[in-house]
Amino acid sequence: MNHFEIQDLPGKGRAMIATKSFATDEIIFEEEPFVSHQFSWNTAYGYAACDHCMRPLETLLENVRRLANNQAVAVPLVEHDPTALWFPQFTQCARCKVRYCSEDCLVEAQKRYHRVACMGAFRADDTHPINVLNETWKKMHYPPETGTIMLIVRLMAMYQQSNKKSEFLEQLQSFQALIVNREQKIYHKMLGENFERQMEQLYTAFCNAFKSEEFAMFTTPDAFKTLMGILGTNSQGIATSVLAQWVTKVSELPLPDADKEQLDTVIDELYAKVGDFAGEFLNNEGSGLYILQSKINHSCVPNAQSTFPYSNDIVVLKAVAPIEKGDEICISYLDECQLERSRHSRHKTLRENYIFVCQCPKCRAQASDPDVTSDEDEDDDDEEMDDCDDDMA
């Protein structure tokens, strides 16, 4: 039984309202995604994850040594490697060799989309229209990634394979696809002139990949923008890490204080080694669409947080502050660094990516602050423009 309900709030639209009180750290709900997919560059850089649920497909040692680019790195307490539980179950598609963490994931993928999505030997063919589409996307979206066109590719496979297409379309349409907020005159940044040529290239590649008549409803310009709007305003980032799971497990061991202190030092050294080579890109990363989670509004002072404690794509929503019955449940659409930026910077990001102006308590309290953009945003804008210039060259 869910202890919340979706309501329409005046001037705000749909919102998730608590029907009971939640204590800090209490689980509000768990949800499997409607669809998920690993990020394109994350895959290209060798981050091995189950093609269905994104569970890591590396042992702890394999993961740490790859991230550190050093095959001599040693890790203690390897008996607590979380992959030991599922490593014997690893399997793959017999035709295309896509890997899965278990037979269950392979069967579920086959049942939902992989029978038509399987590319067989063409998976390695750079000229295949799906690979061309993915490469077109990658040239426009360098790390750090926030989405992937392959999520839409998987949606197309789900539609093609579905025996209940009207039900699939109803579920897909439950996601808001705002790219224009006419009331507040806000437009998604992908409609800006800086991205116009990129969108045209992506649209052309998408149409070439899905020429069949059964995809006609998705390949009109407006339908494509709707799909991109769903991707841009609803997708939830997913991160899984065998290293992070191992750290959590060994940190909970009942060790003597001296041993615990030594372990903390070892963990710090491990993160330093992998950080020197891999930088901030330590996790298997991707994104997913979640029917329930997508109904949750943003606040710069959120009372809930989306977490992935099972090292797969199941999202667990937890309270990060006490929530009373009747309160709106809110998460942050911004990361921790973005939340610390100025009100003007936060609003800029939210307007461009989520098509609304935040009126949370923090933003209202800072309403009289000067409209100054944080230095970090200016740097991000410069990098984004550089990427655009490179793509136009």
Automatic annotation (TrEMBL):
Entry EC number(s): 2.1.1.359, 2.1.1.372
Annotated stretches, region: Disordered: 365-393
Species assigned in the record: Drosophila grimshawi (Hawaiian fruit fly)
Protein's gene: Dgri\GH18189
Main localization, broad class: cytoplasm
Keywords: Cytoplasm, Metal-binding, Methyltransferase, S-adenosyl-L-methionine, Transferase, Zinc, Zinc-finger
InterPro entries tied to this protein: SET_dom (IPR001214), SET_dom_sf (IPR046341), SMYD5_SET (IPR044422)
Compositionally biased spans, kind Acidic residues: 372-393
Zinc-finger recorded as keyword: yes
Record's GO cellular component terms: cytoplasm
GO biological process, one term: methylation
Catalytic activity: L-lysyl(36)-[histone H3] + 3 S-adenosyl-L-methionine = N(6),N(6),N(6)-trimethyl-L-lysyl(36)-[histone H3] + 3 S-adenosyl-L-homocysteine + 3 H(+); L-lysyl-[protein] + 3 S-adenosyl-L-methionine = N(6),N(6),N(6)-trimethyl-L-lysyl-[protein] + 3 S-adenosyl-L-homocysteine + 3 H(+); L-lysyl(20)-[histone H4] + 3 S-adenosyl-L-methionine = N(6),N(6),N(6)-trimethyl-L-lysyl(20)-[histone H4] + 3 S-adenosyl-L-homocysteine + 3 H(+)
Domain SET: 2-334
Lineage top rank: taxon: Eukaryota
Entries under Pfam families matching the protein: SET
Molecular function, one GO term: zinc ion binding
Subcellular location: Cytoplasm
Protein name: Protein-lysine N-trimethyltransferase SMYD5
